[in-house]
Amino acid sequence: MKLAFSTLGVPGMAVRDVVRLAADRGYHGVELRAHPEEPVHPGIGDEERARVRGEFAEGGVEVLTVAGYTRVAAAGPDEPVLAELGALTRLAHDLGAPHVRVFPGGGDQSAAEADATAARRLAAAAPQAADLGVRLLLETHDSHPSGADAARILGPVGHGSVGALWDVMHTWLAGEDPAASYPALAPQLGYVQVKDIASVDDTTPLPLGAGVLPLTECVELLSREGWDGWLCWEYEKRWYPRVPELSGLLAPGREHLLRLLADAA
User: Do 162 and 126 contact (CB within 8 A), yes or no?
Assistant: First the structure.
């Protein structure tokens, strides 16, 4: 499996420094948070996109994902949501990223209504994603935190350019065992976000291995099933600014994941 980290853990860091940090700490890729407060987002122009792609290529680090904030199940008209998906997809293509992350965001709608809305929009956006060589990944998050929740949306879409992003914290908080999450997501699984927290009531990010999330079980399960994709550490420093800097945690975090992989093998 390849290892990556999210720039949610290094908010505002310049692209060149992100690339250097990943290369120095032995990570193969980076999930780029695509938000206007970050250096990379859909509003940057062609010249900047080419520069970002070049810096990653020069550093030997892959852009794993453009992590957008589109809520595909949100109430309202489809057009603005599809426009956001299109902009994110074009950005991912221009950066050479294979994935775009999206959220469900169903809010207070009924599950059936939110499922139908998200499936309709993802199906509509899938052909453009396919043409550009990009895959839209629905994260297990907010209104659809479990693998079973995400599968209700992804099953009806049935398109190879739409898949799942397994956030192990949200499935665990939803009370879903990894042994249930994986088979629900496996047919469409793009990659896995790992992290660690203290408890159900305290989601402050911790170093990998210092909390209660079932990372060992998840890695063992993935290895047993022969899955060889990406593990991406999402350390939520942007939302918890007082936690330690990610730069000092990346090397021991990598070693922890490598130990889990070695033990699973």
Answer: yes
